[in-house]
Specification:
The complex is a heterotetramer of chains A (about 350), B (about 280), C (about 140) and D (about 325). Chain C has a single domain, classed as Lumazine/riboflavin synthase (Rossmann fold), CATH 3.40.50. Chain C has five helices and four strands, in the order H-E-H-E-H-E-H-E-H. Chain C has a four-stranded parallel beta sheet. Chain C is globular. A five-stranded mixed beta sheet of chain D has the order 2-1-3-4-8, with helices on both faces. Chain D has a three-stranded antiparallel beta sheet with strand order 5-6-7. Chain D has two domains: about 280 residues, no CATH class; about 40 residues, no CATH class. In chain D, helix 2 runs parallel beside helix 3 and helix 8 crosses helix 10. Classes of the chains: A alpha/beta (about 350), B alpha/beta (about 280), C alpha/beta (about 140), D alpha/beta (about 325).
Chain lengths: ~350, ~280, ~140, ~325
C-alpha cells in the first residue's frame, strides 16, 4: 500500500486540478445544507465539514434514474435504448461511515445471482477518497456500535487522515493507486506519521459518543416479532421518507413508466418502507397495513434480516436519521431499549 | 453483464377469454428472437414480469409448462394498471417478459410420490403448469398417483375448460372438478373444495399436497390435509406479494429475511411456519 | 423540442368548456360559419365547476402552451352555482400560477353563453393571440 | 411557562383519570439536546412526561385525526351498535386549534371527540433558523430563560434572543391564543411582534419580475427530495390516498424529475387554499429546508383579500372554496 503526504493547503488545488479532467463529486455548501455535488470550476470543495446532509449512495444509486427508453412502433412499444453508462469519477471527502455503506450496498446490488448493471457500472468507475473523522462530527454518531470506526478504510480507495498541517494519504486499493498517478508527486509518509495516525485513530474511536449494542439485539429480534415493544415506537411517526432517503444504506426502489406523446422511459426511483403504498397489493391487501408493521420492518431489516442474509448490520451509524427525523424517532434509543427488554 | 431489468421481446400470439365475467384471459406469447426462447428455461411454479412499455410490469405465474415448447402462457385477471392494459390488447401486440423468476414447485421431491393438487378459482395457473408437466409422456412415469381437486364459485368461472375435459378422459389422473353452486347446464360436482378433498380423501402415505387458492380456501383446506395425515413438510403453496424488481433488490416483498420473488414464491408449510406472519 | 424552436411554431391550446353554455356557443360559432384560429382543442365537461385546477396544471406540464376554461355566465349555470365555485378556484389558481412565475396568459378564464357564437370566436382569437405573444411554454413542462 | 407546563400536566391527568378522554396528545422531551416530540399519554401517571416550552414545534392536530381514524378503521368489523368513539385530548395552541376547526368544519369527527387543552403561545423556535444562527454547527445544549437563549456548540457558547430564531409563522402570528378550547390554561398571550408585517414577504415577492419569481420557485423546489414530510405533518393533508399516490390516473411521476416535483408541490399547496393555518409545521419538518411558506402565505393573503376569510378562524367561517358569493370578484375573467 502506498502512503503519501499531502500538504494541507495543497489539497484543494489537487482536487480542483483533478476536476478539470474528470468528474469530481465533493461536499459543497449550499445555503444551510452541505451536499455532495459535481465540482464545477467556480466551486470550492469543502474540506472542513462535519458530514453532508445527503448520503453519497446517490452517486451509485441515484434517487431517480432512467433504466431504458422505448419508442412507439406499429406493434406496440419497443425498447430503443438502455441507459446507465457511467463516466469515470472521483468521489471526494466521504466519511468512513458512508464509505462503508457502499460495501453493504454491494451485497444487494452485486449479488452473485442477479447483478445490477446500473449500480455496478458506476461503482466500478468511481474512485472513493475517504476522509477519516479525527473528531467524530456529531454527538449522534455511533459508527463503532455497528462494526464501523471513524478511521475505517472499508469501502474507500484512498483514506485521508488530517494530521494537523498535513494529510496522510493511504492508497488502499489498486483503484486508489491509479488515482495517485493523477495527483502529481507526493512525498512518501514516514513511520512517525503512521504512529501519529494510530494514536489519533484510537482517540477518535473512543470519542464516538453513541454506544449502542448493535449486534446484540439480533437474538432478541429472532424471537420477538410479536412483542408489545413494537407498539411503542411508531405512534409519532409521520410516515415520511426522511430517514430512508437520507440513510446511506437504505436501497429500496420503485420502477415506473413514463410516457410523453408516443415515446417513453422506464425509471427507477427511491422508495420507502415507511409509506403505506410500498407493499400495497392491487387486491387491496396490505401485508404491512400500519406504521407499526412498517417500523418493525425498518428496524428488523437493519438489525436482523440484513444480518441473516449478509452477516452485516444495514446501518453505518452516521446518525442522519436521528438528526433529521422530524419527530426525533431515535434508532439508538430503539436499539438500547430493545437490549434492556 | 446480463441486464436483468431488460424485458425479452415477445408477441401476443393468442388471447383466450377464460371466464364468463371476461376478466380473466390467457395470453399465449411467442419469442421474437429464437435465442431468447432457449435462454428462457423454466420449471412449473416460476413466474415472470409481464412488461408493457408505458404502463409498467406485473408479476404473473407461468401457466404453460416447459413440456410445451414454442410459447409461454399467462393467465391474468384484470385488476391494476398493467393487467387492465393487457386485457385491452389484441393478438399481434408486442410486449415484454422478464424472467423466469423465483423458485419452482418441488419437482424433484415430488418424483416417485403421489401428488395431490388442490386449486381454487383463478389461482390454478402454475398448478396447471405442474399438471401438464407431470402428465407429459416423458415425465408421467416419474410420479405416482396424481389427484386433482379444482373448484370455482360457478361453472362460468372455471378456467382451462377444454383442458379440464381432456384430463377427465385420461385414466392416469384423478380429476375432481367442483363448483360452489352449479347452474342448469352443470352436471359435475357441487361443493366447496375442502369438502371435496374430504370426500376424495387422498392417502398421505408417500404423498405431497400442492395447494394454491384464495386465502379463505386455504384456511379451510389445510385442516382437512392435517387430518388425512399430511405433515407440514409435505404441503406446498405459493405466496403472492407486491413486487417490482423480481430479483430481490427493490425490497418490498420480503417476509422476514426471505424475499418472495427470489426465495419463493413456493414454500412448504414447514418453511412458512419459520417465517414471520407478514404476508 | 424540435417543434418548439421551429419558426413555424403554432401555439397549442387546450380548452375545458362546459357542456351547456360554452360548448353550445362553440357549436353556434360553427353553424354561423364564424372563423377562428385552429389552435384550440376543446374538451367538453358537464360544468366549469367540474374543471379540477389540476387539469390546468397538468395540461401545462404535458406541454400545452395555453389553457382556457370557459363556462356559463354567473347566474346562468345549469347546476345553479357550479360556475360560482369554479370562479373562486380559478381566481386563486390564476394568482398562484402567476406568483410562482408562470405567465398569467398561459391560463385564461372566461364566460361564453350558448347564444354567444360571436363571442366564442373572439375569445379563441384573443386567447390564441395572447399565447402566441408569449411564445412556446417552457416552465413546468415535463421533459423526458 | 413552567407554570403552564404544570397546569397542562394537571389537566391531562385529570381528563384521563376521570375518563373524559382516552388519550392525550402533547409534547415530551426528545433524545436530542433540546428537541420536544409528540407524545401520547393514556395512563394518568404518565402525564408527568408532558412538557410545554419554546421547542414544541409540530402541529399536533394531525394526530387527533390519525387516532380517531385508526380507531374507526379498527371497528369496521364490529357491529354498529357495539362501536365505540375515541375521545382525544390535545394540548393546543392557536394554530393547532385552527387546524382542529378545519377538521370539524370538514366533518372529520364530532366536536365531542376532541377535548382541547388550550395554551397561550409565544411562538416556537425554528430548528432551521437556530441552526443557521450557529452556522450549521451541531448544538450540544440549548437553554431558554425568558427571551434569552444560550446555545452551546463545539465551537463555543453563544447568547441570542428568542426572537431571532422564532419560526417565521410565529413572528407574524395573529392567532397565538386558541380560537376554541374546552379548558384554557394561563392568561392570554400578548400579540406577536410582527402581526402587521404578515404579508410583507409576499408583497415583496409579488413585486419581483416574473422570471425571478420562477427562478426562486425552481431553486426551492429543486431541493425537495419527495419525502413527503411536509404533507404528512400537515393537519389539513388527511386524504386517504393523496393524488401523488394515485395510479389511475397517475397525476405526478414518482421520481425527482424537476417538473414532477414542481407540480407535486404546487398542487399540494393549492389544496391548502382556505385551509392553511400557517402553523409552519411543513417548513419545520422539511429535511432540506425548502421555503414553502413563501408560497403558502400567498394563498393565505389572497384568501383574505378575495374572500375575506382566514383558515380555521372560527367554526362559523366556512373554508373559502366550499362556499361562494354572487358578487365574488372576477377581474381575472377574460373579456375579448
Amino acid at each position: 500500500m502506498e502512503k503519501r503526504v499531502i500538504k494541507k493547503d495543497a489539497l484543494a488545488g489537487i482536487i480542483k486540478k483533478m476536476a478539470e479532467n474528470m468528474v469530481v463529486y465533493a461536499p459543497v455548501r449550499d445555503e444551510d445544507n452541505v451536499l455532495f455535488t459535481v465540482l464545477e470550476e467556480e466551486m470550492e470543495p469543502l474540506l472542513e465539514f462535519d458530514n453532508t446532509k445527503n448520503a453519497p449512495k446517490n452517486f451509485f444509486f441515484p434517487q431517480t434514474e432512467v433504466m431504458m427508453r422505448y419508442m412507439k412502433t406499429e406493434r406496440g412499444r419497443e425498447l430503443s435504448t438502455v441507459e446507465g453508462e457511467a463516466t469515470p469519477a472521483v468521489l471526494f471527502g466521504v466519511r468512513p461511515c458512508d464509505a462503508r455503506s457502499f460495501v453493504l450496498l454491494d451485497n444487494v446490488f452485486n449479488d452473485p445471482k442477479y447483478k445490477d448493471p446500473y449500480y455496478i457500472d458506476r461503482r466500478e468507475k468511481t474512485t472513493i477518497v475517504s476522509l477519516a473523522c479525527v473528531q467524530p462530527p456529531y454527538t449522534t454518531c455511533f459508527c463503532t456500535s455497528v462494526d464501523g470506526h471513524p478511521f475505517s478504510a472499508e469501502g474507500a480507495d484512498v483514506l485521508l487522515v488530517d494530521l494537523g498541517d498535513t494529510y496522510l494519504a493511504e492508497f488502499v486499493t489498486p483503484k486508489g493507486e491509479e488515482l495517485l498517478k493523477k495527483m502529481g508527486d507526493l512525498p512518501a509518509a514516514d513511520e512517525a506519521l503512521e504512529a501519529k495516525k494510530e494514536k489519533l485513530s484510537d482517540a477518535a474511536g473512543k470519542a464516538v459518543n453513541g454506544v449502542v449494542p448493535g449486534r446484540a439485539i439480533k437474538s432478541w429480534m429472532d424471537e420477538n416479532f410479536e412483542h408489545p415493544f413494537w407498539d411503542t415506537i411508531h405512534q409519532s411517526c409521520l410516515a415520511c421518507g426522511t430517514c430512508t432517503y437520507l440513510c446511506p444504506t437504505c436501497h429500496c426502489f420503485d420502477i415506473t413508466d413514463e410516457i410523453k406523446k408516443e415515446d417513453g422511459r422506464r425509471i427507477r426511483s427511491w422508495d420507502s418502507c415507511m409509506s403505506w403504498l410500498f407493499t400495497m397489493e392491487t387486491s387491496g391487501h396490505n401485508p404491512r397495513p400500519s406504521q407499526k408493521q412498517r417500523w418493525r420492518q425498518r428496524a428488523m431489516h437493519k438489525f436482523k434480516y440484513f444480518v441473516d442474509n449478509y452477516d452485516a448490520i444495514a446501518c453505518v451509524g452516521c446518525g442522519r436519521c436521528v438528526m433529521y427525523c422530524p419527530v426525533n424517532i431515535d434508532i439508538r434509543k430503539i436499539v438500547t431499549d430493545i437490549s434492556n427488554l | 453483464m446480463q441486464n436483468p431489468y431488460i424485458p425479452i421481446p415477445v408477441d401476443v400470439d393468442k388471447v383466450i377469454t377464460e371466464v364468463t365475467t371476461k376478466d380473466i384471459k390467457t395470453f399465449r406469447l411467442t419469442f421474437v428472437n429464437k435465442e431468447d426462447e432457449e435462454r428462457f428455461s423454466y420449471m412449473p411454479g416460476q413466474f415472470a414480469e409481464l412488461s408493457i412499455f408505458g404502463k409498467g410490469e406485473s408479476p404473473i405465474g407461468i401457466a404453460s409448462s416447459p413440456t410445451q415448447p414454442g410459447y409461454l402462457e399467462f393467465t391474468v385477471q384484470r385488476a391494476g394498471v398493467v393487467t387492465s392494459e393487457l386485457h385491452s390488447i389484441e393478438e399481434g401486440f408486442r410486449m415484454g417478459v422478464r424472467g423466469p423468476l423465483g423458485n419452482t414447485w418441488p419437482i424433484d421431491y415430488l418424483k416417485g410420490k403421489n401428488v395431490v393438487i388442490v386449486g381454487g378459482g383463478f389461482a390454478f395457473t402454475t398448478l396447471r403448469s405442474l399438471i401438464n408437466y407431470m402428465i407429459h409422456e416423458g415425465n408421467r412415469a416419474d410420479f405416482g398417483k396424481i389427484t386433482v381437486v379444482y373448484g370455482a364459485r360457478e361453472p362460468g368461472l372455471l378456467i382451462y375448460k377444454d383442458e379440464l375435459a381432456a384430463w377427465e378422459k385420461r385414466d392416469d389422473i384423478d380429476m375432481n372438478v367442483t363448483v360452489d353452486k352449479g347452474d342448469a347446464t352443470w352436471t359435475g360436482r357441487e361443493g366447496f373444495v375442502p369438502a371435496v378433498c374430504e370426500q376424495v380423501a387422498p392417502g398421505s402415505e408417500n404423498a405431497v399436497a400442492v395447494i394454491c387458492g384464495p386465502p379463505i380456501m386455504i384456511r379451510f383446506t389445510l385442516p382437512v390435509f392435517f387430518n388425512l395425515g399430511f405433515s407440514k413438510d409435505n404441503i406446498y403453496t405459493s405466496l403472492e406479494m407486491r413486487m417490482k424488481c423480481g430479483i430481490g433488490k427493490c425490497g418490498r416483498c420480503n417476509v422476514g429475511s426471505k424475499y418472495v420473488c427470489k426465495d419463493g414464491p413456493v414454500f412448504s408449510l414447514a418453511e412458512l411456519d419459520k417465517l414471520t406472519k407478514e404476508y | 423540442m424540435t417543434e418548439k424552436t421551429n419558426e413555424n411554431w403554432e401555439p397549442k391550446i387546450i380548452a375545458f368548456v362546459c357542456n351547456w353554455c360554452t360548448y353550445a356557443g362553440a357549436d353556434l360559432a360553427g353553424i354561423s360559419r364564424l372563423q377562428y384560429p385552429p389552435n384550440v382543442r376543446l374538451v367538453r365537461l358537464p360544468c366549469s365547476g367540474r374543471v379540477n385546477p389540476f387539469y390546468v396544471v397538468k395540461a401545462l406540464q404535458e406541454g400545452m402552451d395555453g389553457v382556457l376554461v370557459s363556462g356559463c355566465h354567473p347566474g346562468e349555470c345549469h347546476y345553479i352555482s357550479g360556475n360560482l365555485s369554479a370562479r373562486r378556484k380559478f381566481a386563486m389558481l390564476k394568482n398562484f400560477l402567476s406568483y410562482v412565475g408562470i405567465e398569467p396568459d398561459r391560463a385564461i378564464f372566461t364566460w361564453v353563453s350558448a347564444s354567444e357564437g360571436e363571442k366564442f370566436s373572439q375569445v379563441i382569437k384573443g386567447v390564441t393571440e395572447k399565447v402566441r405573444a408569449l411564445g412556446p411554454a417552457q416552465k413546468l413542462v415535463k421533459k423526458l | 411557562m413552567e407554570n403552564i407546563e404544570k397546569q397542562v400536566r394537571e389537566q391531562a391527568k385529570k381528563l384521563l383519570a376521570d375518563g373524559t378522554v382516552d388519550i392525550v396528545v402533547g409534547y415530551e422531551k426528545g433524545t436530542l439536546p433540546f428537541q420536544t416530540i409528540p407524545c401520547f399519554i393514556t395512563n394518568p401517571d404518565d402525564a408527568e412526561r408532558l412538557v410545554w416550552n419554546r421547542f414544541c414545534s409540530v402541529n399536533l392536530a394531525k394526530y387527533v385525526h390519525d387516532i380517531i381514524f385508526a380507531h374507526k378503521a379498527s371497528q369496521v368489523r364490529t357491529k354498529p351498535e357495539e362501536r365505540t368513539k375515541k375521545t382525544v385530548g390535545i394540548v393546543a395552541r392557536g394554530c393547532t386549534t385552527r387546524s382542529l376547526v378545519i377538521h370539524l368544519q370538514e366533518k372529520q369527527y364530532d366536536r365531542d371527540q376532541v377535548v382541547i387543552i388550550g395554551v397561550p403561545c409565544t411562538g416556537y423556535i425554528a430548528n432551521k433558523k437556530l441552526s443557521m444562527a450557529v452556522n450549521g454547527a451541531e448544538i450540544t445544549t440549548c437553554t431558554v430563560a425568558g427571551d434569552a437563549l444560550s446555545v452551546e456548540t463545539k465551537g463555543g457558547k453563544r447568547d441570542i434572543t428568542v426572537n431571532e430564531v422564532l419560526a417565521d409563522s410565529c413572528l407574524t402570528c395573529r392567532f397565538n391564543n386558541p380560537v376554541i378550547s374546552d379548558v384554557m390554561i394561563g392568561d392570554a398571550a400578548p400579540p406577536m411582534p410582527d402581526g402587521e408585517k404578515e404579508y410583507n414577504a409576499v408583497d415583496a415577492f409579488e413585486e419581483l419580475p416574473i422570471d425571478e419569481r420562477w427562478a426562486y420557485f425552481t431553486k426551492e423546489m429543486a431541493k425537495c427530495i419527495r419525502c413527503y414530510a411536509c404533507r404528512n405533518t400537515c393537519p389539513s393533508c388527511y386524504c386517504k390516498v393523496c393524488f401523488v399516490e394515485q395510479s389511475q390516473p397517475r397525476w405526478v411521476g414518482a421520481g425527482i424529475d424537476e417538473s414532477d416535483t414542481q407540480v407535486f408541490q404546487f398542487m399540494r399547496m393549492f389544496h391548502m387554499v382556505g385551509r392553511c393555518v400557517d402553523c409552519g409545521s411543513c417548513v419545520e419538518v422539511c429535511p432540506m429546508g425548502v421555503d414553502l411558506r413563501k408560497f403558502l402565505k400567498k394563498l393565505d393573503k389572497d384568501d383574505l383579500q378575495l374572500f375575506n376569510h382566514r383558515a380555521g378562524e372560527s367554526l362559523e367561517s366556512a373554508p373559502s372554496l366550499s362556499v361562494h358569493r354572487e358578487n365574488d370578484k372576477e377581474e381575472f375573467i377574460f373579456e375579448p
